[in-house]
Amino acid sequence: MTSSQARRHSRSDPPDGPAGRREVSGRLPWMLMAPAVAGLVFLVSPLAGLLIRAPWPTLFQRLAEPQVMEALRLSLVTATVATAGCLVLGVPLAWLLARVEFPGRRLVRALVTVPLVLPPVVGGVALLLVLGRRGLLGQWLESAFGITLPFTTAGVIVAEAFVAMPFLVISVEGALRAADRRFEEAAATLGASRWTVFRRVTLPLIMPGVVAGAVLCWARALGEFGATITFAGNFPGTTRTMPLAVYLALETEPEAAIVLSLVLLLVSVVILAGLRDRWVNSP
Amino acid sequence: MFRRLSRWAIVALAIAGLSGCGSGRPAASTSAGGAKEVTVFAAASLTATFTQLGRSFEAAHPGTTVTFNFGSSATLAQQIIQGAPADVFAAASPATMKTVTDASQASSPVTFARNKLEIAVPEDNPARVDELRDLTGSTVKVALCAEQVPCGAAAVKALHAAGLKVTPVTLEQDVKATLTKVELGEVDAALVYRTDVIASAGKVTGIAFPEADQAINDYPIATLSKAPAGDLARRFVDLVTSRQGRDVLTRAGFGAP
Q1: Which of A39, A74, A232, B41 could form a cystine bridge with A156, CB 3.0-4.6 A?
Q2: ipTM for the complex?
């Protein structure tokens, strides 16, 4: 089966078509409408504020500054590498959670999603305690291999991956649960090995979920601040990503902070808008 | 039952949300009988001393509350310029105070304390640092504050006065974060304020160095021109600059102006 077939199959029919939706919208209760609009204004107005207050005349000049480019490049590279790492570890983890019955699975699932709700700074402290120079594993890493993660670009990637991986795992796990098991069973009865089934049937079937998860994961990694500054520190070219540059620019030059924020906002909106249309409505 | 409950919950949330957006702070300070609440924006390095002074102030003025917003001086200055309701601003550097006076939000700040840098090293001092020159070693991991914040500006000044070039592994966003990296042993040394070394109570060792005298940091305080509680604000500033205030600050390691 090709992946496009799989996608078509797995996109379940919406319960009511466009016609049904129109009928309902005519009698939308105000009790929902008023708070909905208030919620929209609440979420969108800060973004509008950024656009209104942006120093448009000097925008491109500020963007072209070497420090800005350096921070942007570092952000894009670390977020991409972190996402790649999350894919390698996160997809199998999602598979484990969705397909394998084992005692304590609910607890494991809860633990996997903890970084979603954990304040990122706490995540950074936790990473330091484990992977820092005096950390449980970090100590050993340094004495055995001479590797220290804090204050390195690798440290940034670790911090971003820690915070962003749950987005991928949740998304892929959801896709795995929604996928039709009968295709896998059919492949297995035809003699395919478990690995072949996963590679040739399961993975294509859940590809939209994997892509959606990867994009969310990437966007989250791009915006990571708290864990990065706590665990990896802040040094231009090595660990100062865009969010850190924004925070520091705010100390002296709020206008520069606005410009940097605009760039991050633009990247996020483009990514999420593209994602929304193509993938999010699929499993 | 549940459905009805959730409907009311939505209405309640919406009302709470809307009214919450309207007013930034309770109207306590505008009551007719004089202000009862004074809001103080102060540099993070003043957290312990000002909290103590705030308690004394409340004891001396029954019925009043002192509310603090501690943070990076530059961030606080931006918040004040953007209209945050504050009565008093105590900054960790004249430069951050200047952004507020330049915006005509305050006038005639007074210096009430001074702070000096020290080298902070972990208790066991793994890199055997005992003077400023030791920080230039390529194997010594050093954390400094970013130049944009007062402790970083002071560090640059002190290193410049000593004619030394230090390549840090990180430029932290405030002095507490810098000190934390030493406490956790992630760096071998950092330049932080003497007061922070004292406040860390034995978790790090402080090493004084002569060039610190070239980079002494003045702490200015001012009542804000739009202070909702102007009278109380002035009295709080009086307390900070009084003998009693100086005692508290000296005990924490601050120098007298």
Answers
A1: A232
A2: 0.71
Q: Which band of pLDDT confidence, cut at 50, 70 and 90, is reported for residue A276?
A: low
What are the structural domains of chain B?
Answer: 3-114+218-251 (3.40.190.10), 117-214 (3.40.190.120)
Phi, psi of B122, rounded to the nearest 5 degrees? -60, 155
User: For residue A151, which residues of chain B lie inside 8 Å, CB to CB?
Assistant: 141, 169-170, 186
Strands B189-193 and B142-145 turn out to be: parallel
Total-model pTM: 0.76
Q: What angle do CA B131, B148, B200 make, to 5 degrees?
A: 50
A230 inside 8 A of chain B by CB? yes
3-state SS, residue B128: coil
A141-155, B4-18, B137-151 — which is least confidently predicted?
A: B4-18
- pLDDT above 50: residue B216: yes
* Side-chain half-sphere exposure of A70, counting CA atoms within 13 A: 13
Q: A53 contacts in B (CB within 8 Å)?
A: none
Fold of the A66-276 domain:
MetI-like fold (1.10.3720)
Domain boundaries, chain A: 66-276
